[in-house]
Amino acid sequence: MKLVEADLGEHHISCDIGCHLFSILPPFNLGATTMGYGLGAASSAAFNVKGGRRAISVMGDGGFWHNGLASGIGNAVFNKYDGVIVIVDNFYASATGGQDILSSRADNPDRATNNPIEAAVRGVGVKWLRVIDRTYDVARLRDTLEEALTTPEPGPKVIIAQSECMLNKQRRVKPIFNKAVKAGERVIKERFGVDADVCSGDHACIRLSGCPSLTLKDSGDPLKEDPVAYVDASCVGCGNCGEVADAAVLCPSFYRADLLHNPTRRDRLLSRVRGAVIGFLQRRRAARLAGSAL
Amino acid sequence: MTKRITFHPGTPIRIAILAMGGQGGGVLADWIVEMAERAGWWAQTSSVPGVAQRTGATVYYLELLPESAAHAAGRPPVLAMMPTPGDVDLVVAAELMEAGRAMQRGLVTPERTTLITSTHRSYAVAEKSAPGNGIADPNKVIDAGRAAAKRLLCFDLQQMAERAGSVISASLFGAIAGAKVLPFAREMFEETIRDGGVGVEASLRAFALGFEAAAQAPADFAPIDTSRPPPEVPERAASPHAQALLDAVKRDFPAGTQPMLVAGLRRLIDFQDIAYAAEYLRTLQTLRELDERSGGGAHDWALTRAAARYVAVAMSYDDVIRVADLKTRGSRFARVRDEVGAKPDQLLYTTEFMHPRFEEICGVLPAGLGRRLERSKAFGDFFRRHVEKGRRVRSGTLTGFLALYCAAGMRQFRRGTLRHQVETAHLRDWLARATRIAAADYALAVEVLECRRLIKGYSGTHDRGDKRFARLMEAADQLLGRADAAATLHRLRDAALADEEGHALDAQLAGLLRGPFTPPQETRRPGHVAA
User: Fold this and answer.
1) Where is the DUF6537 domain (chain B) (predicted)?
2) Which domains are seen in chain A, by residue range?
3) Is the minimum CB–CB distance between A252 and chain B shorter than 8 Å?
4) Under an 8 A CB cutoff, do A245 and B274 touch?
5) Where does chain B hold its CATH 3.40.920.10 domain(s)?
6) Chain B nearest C-alpha distance from A231 (Å)
7) Which of A17, A90, A292 would best serve as a mutation to test chain B binding (most B beta carbons within 10 A)?
8) What residues of B are in contact with residue A170 (Cβ under 8 Å)?
9) Other CB atoms closer than 10 Å to residue B166's CB: what's the count?
10) How many degrees, rounded to 5, is the angle at CA B110 between CA B117 and CA B174?
11) What is the nearest CA distance from B436 to chain A, expressed in angstroms?
């Protein structure tokens, strides 16, 4: 939304209850109101007047099923509301610890899960609906938001952003992952990092990402006075930092490191071939640099 | 210093622990309670958690009362749930700013509080998001602690915990034991850890480090050294080709300027070649002569020192070639392996997030061609629509690596590129301005050189820095002749680095420059009534 606002200016944003509400804090400073659980869209209903810019409201999936479907979406359809509603579908009630709700992806023997939000939203009569199955695709989400804010189509514009809550996912996946590593299976662990020598220490990435794992360290370069960005070991590998740097065209400092546990014979062979060529070229260049080193 | 703390008889020992999520503050509180209960004390812990799963500071509060006191009173005690200002015996902070916050809340008082804090930092968003260096001065907190606490103990307990392969709660527990603020013996502390049964060996190692540090703590702590060590000037160059440059540095330049010159030469050899570094040195020699003419000897050669750093930075602009070069180096591959903790039998592949814009691509073309394409609207539109998009390059695969390697290999054509031409012209203008100003105002000329710090980054970030730099250069011209010119420009530079939008700079420019420079004229028209 920061990127959208850079393009289209500030908008009224009403928030729901949940982790996304931290957007009202630095570095984002996004969000004008919050009223209660599931009331993101209901609380911006009053802004259904012709204006230069549409209001944006945010709603979590928990809040959506709690009352948002009726108080937010149904109400918006009925009143021909012209704003944009973003529904955060992160697979369960995440902020409280991952309890199941109607749209949870898990199979629960005692409950009816897997009822998609999309069907419910269409069911109450929303015509303009976009489903984004990977919220971490920052560029795509930005473009969809911009489209929703500028399309001439009347009625509520609903965006369903789907991606599992990374913190809960880590808790769920970590034991499975460790077991797979122990069992000798070929698994990949993702992590993100910043090349300190490429980073220029402007911290634009930090202003746009807000990730607690993205922090600072000394550049280690006497010519670079300002500290550089650094991804610490608490990174859960969501990739938001790299996506943001790419979508906002910030810098090429970010990298994703895929650590391959228990490589197969084919992996090893391929790696040996690659390593031979790459290593040869790297040594050649390093030797040339060493030849003139001070 | 092993001064015994005496507690008010009949009242509990009151302890506040301030920690952030994930630091094990809860574990620490539980350890203390268990240890006290084992010794037959009454003990209670409560916590006021911060928000969310990984942020927010939590305050744990403990009260410990010996059984004898309860017995003397003849009834079971009522222990409090919350710390009250002026009424805490021991404050433990798991991060330096947490200590600051404890003082802000009034929990640390000179009559009774021992303050134990780790000196490491987890930076706040406001510190991290400044475009320059927004990191707060840790010594201010330590100074405040010295004044606010009866006794202050501060060391990097995080680093001790990491050294022991444990978490900070263990080294904090050790520091509490070592400070001898609680009436329990070391063995009792250690036994509590052992009975916990989780990561015992690592915890005990961290405990021991914390214990020693606290037991041998000096009466007063030296301030934390936040200065950056200057690069060393080597005896001999690492290769014969570079020796001549090193000799010239030692022969022609004052000693104080040599470290930065060596760093500059190294950067430029790494960036281009020996000839390019020699060019840098020639530029610096001219500037040193200017420095001498302007009486730089009396200013510790500030002009040469500033130029040594920023001319090197300006000459090693970050172009596509540079980025591709840095990304494909063997040392970089090794560094990434090290950073993610890859074991020898694990394979590692990195994916680079690249997004070269049209301007950057034109920049690496030969100057004439690049300029023509840059001017062509049709080509630019076509390129932006079809070619310019985010690219994920897998630098560990042959295609990905070779593409980057070839891009890096273009360094031999670099001097012919459009970007080089643009940067060289920029450098010339900037140095010409500094030279012109040096004759009249030495300090202002130094500040003009230091302003180069604003230009950094890529794409939009770079453009923004460029624009701010240009505004400051204009300001420097206008300021010339004023007594406070250098100080003003310095303030403007700080303002330019304070926030992304440039609000601080706008405000300063409006206030400082226009204010005393051209005082607002009060033009009263006849018949006009002032509101």
Assistant:
1) 258-474
2) 2-164 (3.40.50.970), 168-262 (3.30.70)
3) yes
4) no
5) 13-215
6) 10
7) A292
8) none
9) 24
10) 30
11) 25
CB-CB neighbors (< 8 A) of A234 in chain B = 22, 54
- State how far the Cα of B97 lies from the Cα of B158, in Å rounded to an integer: 14
CATH of the domain spanning B13-215: 3.40.920.10
Q: What Rg value do the Cα atoms of chain B yield, rounded?
A: 30
One digit per residue, the tens of pLDDT, for chain B of length 531 reads 444 555 456 789 999 999 987 788 899 999 999 999 999 999 999 988 776 444 567 899 999 999 998 888 888 889 999 999 999 999 999 999 999 999 999 999 999 999 999 999 988 888 898 888 989 999 999 999 999 999 999 999 999 999 999 999 999 999 999 999 999 999 999 999 999 888 899 999 999 999 999 999 988 888 888 888 888 899 999 998 899 999 999 999 999 999 999 999 999 999 999 999 999 999 999 999 999 999 999 999 999 999 999 999 999 999 999 999 999 999 999 999 998 888 988 999 999 988 888 888 899 999 999 999 988 888 888 888 877 777 889 999 999 999 999 999 999 999 999 999 999 999 999 999 999 999 999 999 999 999 999 998 888 889 889 999 999 999 999 999 999 999 999 999 999 988 888 888 888 888 775 554 443 343 333 333 333
Closest CA to B458 of A67, A26, A200, A241: A200
With CA atoms as reference, report the closest residue to B164 among B217, B200, B118.
Answer: B200
- pTM greater than 0.80: yes
Q: Judging by DSSP bridges, how do beta strands A254-261 and B347-354 pair with one another? A: antiparallel
In sequence order, what E strands does A16-66 have?
Answer: 33-34, 56-60
Judge whether B328 is closer than 8 Å to chain A, CB to CB.
Answer: yes
Compute CA distances B396 → A89, B251, B328, B402, B405, whole Å: 35, 45, 9, 9, 11
B228 touches chain A (CB under 8 A): yes
In angstroms, the CA B456 to CA B71 distance is 69
CB-based contact, A203 to chain B, within 8 Å: yes
Helix (H) or strand (E) holding B350: strand B347-354
Q: How does strand A56-60 pair with strand A84-89?
A: parallel
Helix, strand, coil tally for chain A in percent (to 5): 40, 20, 45
Residues of B in contact with A273 (CB under 8 A): 398
Helix (H, G, I), strand (E, B), or coil: what is residue B130? coil
Nearest-Cα residue of chain A relative to residue B264: A223
Distance CA B296, CA B303 (A): 7
> Measured between CB atoms, does A10 come within 8 Å of chain B?
no
> Which tokens is A48 given?
């259904």
